[in-house]
């Protein structure tokens, strides 16, 4: 089916806007394809180093035959539950590649921060910048130019976006992203959130809080709420970089291992040595990013991807904007209710039909492009199929045509709401975004006096002192990328949720980020320009009347002449040292604005 006019219009303007970037990018990728990778161009000494660590079979294959070689970029560590399963993947990949007539080597490792550990801690100020570090580290691994394809092992918040930036930069070779799947369901996410609010109110002690957290995060695998990690997995399917239906298969299962082996075989098939050469630069085109943005809206995904998608696209020579995302949201139905947008977790979402059901529905309604190149072949329709094991062999079968639970996932023709969950906010305070899919309709417009803070710790102290027991818009400034690395402010969710439950009108305005798990409190986030860059938020004062309107898409201070006010500055020296923050000064000094992806690698935005 032809895509709807509104989808095509956004696609066309992205294509036109991107020409100064995309055409030179594609030219570079084509020249790189012509030049290699070709191990025969390496000197004998070079090749000896490439193969010195290999076993005899791989050494012969790599040195004396045209066998394709896969470079594995792994984000494995055994502290991060989502990445713990990756410990055994390189062995399985090497074994599979060898049996298929190829070879595989771990080309490099990249850091993988667990945002769940660093929430509310100083280390969170390194989190966003870790995305660029991951891209750089993956680039080092692939720079050996000894690989015909890359397999990327990564799941969580900044890891997948960083790996996509690297994959796009090395877009002359294929890239296959390999998930590890979510942990089995534990304590329901809404129950965990309730205990957090009880703790914030002092109704339960730390022992009860610890029991709830341990029952929720309890085994290897991705956290089961629909935060940034699982949104990344959705995106890799909508953009054609995963094998179909592979995102939400649990770790430690026969199907999970079979999918990893299938991904390895597919990586070999789509190299220049195979019959279906699929360079990543061709996969990551304008239509693929539009599909990803539609998927983000239709599923109610994490607001972090609003930043990451801009940065990922830029690496592929494509310029997308928050306006593109907001305009697509206006015509994309909200089809899923997964916590924090609903009560279900991702395991229940997957069982109800999940991504394969949604992609079929969106294709049928003309809301995504089918005419795209993916690692599974030409056409997004490949992603309407789900994997299964038949006599020990993996097969892809058409997913059910009906939702398995219409309280979790609904058809595009009868969605939970007619628009997606992301809205662009504009006004005299600048430009921000709000995710409304988890916010009740009656709370999407908040007008209240401001209380100004320069740290989340100060907000929590005011909450404990009872100073926030009123209608209030909490403003937390100097939280942007230039100020302190733009940490997530997820630890504010419980206290603000308590205030909202008391009946107060509550909202958050910040130049920082919120976690992908945040939702029910209206939050105008990623405000640009940020306070450290002289943005209007730095001119606000306590008591100013603010209006956050998630329906009309406005963010304003009322009855104030901001130009007549002095810009407040802040002492940011405490954000410069400790827990590695001093190592990231170069990022803070060179980072671009949030609206441009908050990247130090590509710090400018296309006008």
From TrEMBL:
- Give the catalytic activity: 6-phospho-D-gluconate = 2-dehydro-3-deoxy-6-phospho-D-gluconate + H2O
Q: What is its EC number?
A: 4.2.1.12
In its UniProt record, a GO molecular function of this protein is: phosphogluconate dehydratase activity
SUPFAM superfamilies assigned: IlvD/EDD N-terminal domain-like, LeuD/IlvD-like
The residues that the entry says bind [4Fe-4S] cluster are: 156, 223
| GO biological process terms, semicolon-separated | D-gluconate metabolic process; Entner-Doudoroff pathway through 6-phosphogluconate
The pathway it acts in is: Carbohydrate metabolism; Entner-Doudoroff pathway
The highest taxon in the source lineage is Bacteria
Q: Which InterPro entries match?
A: 6-phosphgluc_deHydtase, Dihydro-acid_dehy_C, DiOHA_6PGluconate_deHydtase_CS, ILV_EDD_C, ILV_EDD_N, IlvD/EDD_N
GO CC annotation, single: cytosol
Task: Report domain Dihydroxy-acid/6-phosphogluconate dehydratase C-terminal positions.
Answer: 408-598
User: Which keywords does this chain's UniProt record carry?
Assistant: 4Fe-4S, Carbohydrate metabolism, Gluconate utilization, Iron, Iron-sulfur, Lyase, Metal-binding
> Which cofactors does it use?
[4Fe-4S] cluster
Top EC category: lyase
Please report which protein family the annotation says this sequence is part of.
Answer: Belongs to the IlvD/Edd family.
| Protein name from the UniProt record | Phosphogluconate dehydratase
- Organism, scientific name: Pontivivens marinum
Gene name, please? edd
């Amino acid at each position: 089916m032809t895509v709807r006019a509104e989808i095509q219009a956004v696609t066309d303007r992205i294509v036109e806007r991107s020409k100064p970037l995309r055409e030179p990018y594609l030219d570079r990728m084509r020249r790189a394809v012509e030049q290699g990778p070709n191990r025969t161009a390496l000197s004998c000494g070079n090749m000896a180093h490439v193969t010195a660590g290999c076993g005899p079979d791989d050494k012969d294959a790599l040195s004396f035959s045209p066998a394709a070689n896969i470079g594995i970029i792994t984000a494995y560590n055994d502290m991060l539950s989502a990445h713990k399963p990756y410990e055994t993947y390189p062995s399985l990949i090497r074994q599979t590649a060898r049996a298929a007539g190829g070879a595989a080597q771990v080309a490099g490792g990249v850091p993988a921060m667990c945002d769940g550990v660093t929430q509310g801690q100083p280390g969170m100020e390194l989190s966003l910048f870790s995305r660029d570090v991951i891209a750089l580290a993956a680039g080092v691994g692939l720079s050996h130019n000894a690989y015909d394809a890359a397999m990327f092992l990564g799941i969580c918040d900044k890891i997948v976006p960083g790996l996509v930036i690297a994959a796009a930069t090395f877009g002359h070779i294929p890239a296959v992203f390999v998930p590890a799947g979510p942990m089995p369901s534990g304590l329901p996410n809404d129950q965990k959130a309730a205990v957090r609010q009880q703790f914030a109110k002092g109704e339960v002690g730390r022992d009860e809080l610890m029991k709830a957290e341990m029952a929720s995060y309890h085994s290897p695998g991705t956290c089961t709420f629909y935060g940034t990690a699982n949104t990344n997995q959705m995106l890799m399917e909508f953009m054609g970089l995963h094998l179909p239906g592979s995102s939400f298969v649990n770790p430690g299962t026969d199907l999970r291992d079979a999918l990893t082996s299938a991904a390895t075989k597919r990586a070999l098939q789509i190299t220049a040595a195979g019959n279906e050469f699929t360079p990543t630069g061709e996969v990551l085109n304008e239509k693929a990013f539009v599909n990803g943005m539609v998927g983000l809206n239709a599923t109610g995904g994490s607001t972090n991807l609003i930043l990451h998608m801009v940065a990922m696209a830029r690496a592929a020579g494509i310029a997308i904007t928050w306006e593109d995302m907001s305009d697509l949201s206006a015509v994309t139905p909200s089809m899923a209710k997964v916590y924090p947008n609903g009560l279900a977790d991702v395991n229940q979402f997957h069982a109800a039909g999940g991504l394969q059901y949604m992609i079929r529905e969106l294709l049928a309604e003309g809301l995504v492009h089918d005419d795209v190149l993916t690692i599974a072949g030409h056409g997004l329709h490949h992603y309407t199929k789900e994997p299964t094991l038949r006599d020990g062999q993996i097969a892809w079968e058409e997913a059910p045509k009906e939702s398995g639970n219409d309280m979790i996932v609904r058809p595009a023709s009868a969605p939970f709401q007619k628009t997606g969950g992301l809205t662009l906010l504009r006004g005299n305070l600048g430009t921000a975004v709000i995710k409304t899919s988890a916010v009740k309709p009656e709370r999407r417009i908040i007008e209240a006096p401001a209380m100004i803070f320069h740290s989340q710790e100060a907000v929590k102290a005011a909450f404990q002192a009872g100073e926030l027991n009123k209608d209030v818009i909490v403003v937390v400034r100097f939280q942007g990328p230039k100020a302190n690395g733009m940490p997530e402010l997820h630890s504010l969710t419980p206290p603000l949720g308590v205030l909202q439950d008391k009946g107060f009108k509550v909202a958050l305005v910040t130049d920082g980020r919120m976690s992908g798990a945040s939702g029910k409190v209206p939050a105008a986030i990623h405000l640009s320009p940020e306070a450290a860059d002289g943005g209007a938020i730095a001119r606000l004062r306590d008591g100013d009347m603010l209006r956050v309107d998630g329906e009309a898409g406005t963010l304003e201070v009322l009855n104030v002449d901001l130009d007549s006010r002095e810009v407040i500055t802040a002492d940011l020296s405490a954000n410069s040292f400790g827990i590695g923050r001093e190592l990231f000064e170069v990022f803070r000094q060179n980072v671009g604005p949030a609206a441009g992806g908050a990247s130090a690698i590509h710090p400018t935005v296309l006008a």
